[in-house]
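Hello again,

I reread your note about wanting to compare the complex against the isolated chains. To keep things tidy I'm splitting this into two emails, and this first one only covers the full assembly. Below are the input lines as submitted, including protein chains and any nucleic acid or small-molecule components. They are followed by the predicted structure of everything together. The single-chain runs will come separately.
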Amino acid sequence: MAEIILTACKETFIMVAASTALAVILGFIPAIILTVTASDGLKPNKAVYTILDLLVNIFRSFPFIILMVIIIPFTRAIAGKSYGVGAAIVPLTVSAIPFVARIIESALREVDQGVIEAAKSFGASNTQIIFKVMIKEAIPAIVSGITLTVISIIGYSAMGGAIGAGGLGDVAIRYGYQRYETDMMIATCVILIIFVQGLQALGNYLYSKLSN
Amino acid sequence: MIEITNVEKHFGDVQVLKDINIHINQGEIYGLIGHSGAGKSTLLRCINGLETYTGGSVKVKDREVKELNPRELREFRKDLGMIFQNFNLMSRKNVFDNIALPLEVWGADKTEIKEKVEKLLTLVGLSEKRNAKPSALSGGQKQRVAIARALALDPAILLCDEATSALDPKTTKDILSLLLKINEQMGITIVIVTHQMEVIKEVCQRVALIDGGKIRAEGKPGDIFLSPDTHLKKFLGADEEDEFYPEEGINIRLYFPSASSENQVITKMAKELSIDFSIIGGKLEKFRHEILGSLIINIEERDKEAVTAYLEKKAILWEVLKN
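Full-complex prediction:
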């Protein structure tokens, strides 16, 4: 049992860490474009904003399990195969990108317009305003958004079992639910609770550390 | 230095600036006073291109602001520092890094930045707070940091947008004397937008009253506040309504260009016209380095003509107050 759980922990960790990292990196791009092209942004552009906004909403509308199945050809193209931990990272990342994009967008929008105006007043370029002012100021909010993302990816990763990716959620379903192994169910759930609690505590700690 | 000619601005159908004409000289401290929503902050932002204008011309050092391309505009703004009502400091950077930001943006190297920021910290008196975050500073200290940041690129002009409106009276005075020092020692031209009378009186050489997007009065603060016209009276509002005068006789307010001449004029008038009058009240006000005053006297109806003729002859400003 310990071995099964340990392997599952490893699988979960890899899936969550890799897809969070990828989603944050890739989510920044639409987030910045959305912030810049919004009507109160640095370079308002209604067409770009509307299209991107719609795209983000479309991707967020799919239930994860459906998305995972729909993008199998894409997954195969990227990961080389359509099952296993590596393959699960693709749909997890794809589903997390629009989520991360929204979180970073709202964090960037919270940045005081006055600070941005001050940066303009001494001749900062838009790129400098985004990277040296807005992102810098928004870091605490972005960090707490990422905490949220990690926790929701842990939840989604349970469905990774459907494409043979394993992980803690999968163990809970296969052993705990389908085979009535209650101790396995309790063990995985307790570990997940500890994970989530720990991550939230870490996220809160970083937030307060960064905002001072 | 700054030439604003026939400037107009519309927000959709609303006209926020109407035919504004102002010329600000090099080394001057110029005030724009008015109620909130009068258009004064918008006008200030037209000077450094943070706002556009729909008509007319804004020239700073002979360059038309609206004709600058984005690249030129950024370069142009190095010459115009700006401070704000809410300080607009970066909350996650300490005092030193906040002041260093403009230098960093313009690619100064580390030693250059350090040297410049140290100098500015000394100028604004915050050397000991260099590592503090803005959240640990008082309002006055935050504004000092903002002033240091605005001066980091050695601008020729400093724009102040309600810079003292969030501060208490004592701190306001401190900030104003810092601005005065900057103006006198560094020769920086300062444009101040405010709704606070004290600010104008304390530091401005010239002032324009803006109301409803128009200039209603312009001149030296002493002249326009001591002999206010109707627009200014409306602006001063409550102040005047609280005053009560005797119902008998005629009340005349005299304006004195300087305090010293005050007593002589009225005592001489009493002697020369051999009339009696009573003094109802008076006040002296400080405008920058000058003290100016007004005095209200009450005379008898029959003496009115003689008195007003005398005052005309002596070129003293006066007005008859309503009983």
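For quick reference: The radius of gyration of chain A is 20 Å.

B.
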